[in-house]
Write a structure and sequence with these properties.
alpha+beta, Lipocalin, 40% strand
Amino acid sequence: MRLFLILLLLMTGGVVAADELDAGAEDTKALQGLWHAVELQANGQVAPAEATKAFQVEFKGERIVFNPATEACKHTFAVNPSAKPKAMDLMADDGPKKGQKLPCAIYKLEGDKLTICLDKEGTAGSRPTEFRTAAGDGFAMIVLERANVKK
């Protein structure tokens, strides 16, 4: 009987882990492509309309690129859709944080709308827990719409 229970626990844990991997792959696939910002804010301040209009994010495979046409700030990303709220980890491709896994973001994907709230420069030292920013918190929130979507 004990052997049966152990096998059952091992099999159930494997199924849960496989389901989490499938959910991560599904969200990663759904994120693919170019996104345009419709709202930007940092430390409780809303960005000017010109800055928002120019801001883009592109997901390509396991890469995320902020402002691909200008800055091309590149990171590798991984999602955890089973976290509440859904979590995103980034690993910088260059700069002082190169190669460091930064558990710094949460995201919400609603069709062709994506909201990301993150530790803007990796200085807040924690992942946001809600989709908002406040003065001095070090967080930024980006609300994006999928490019080339006809309304």
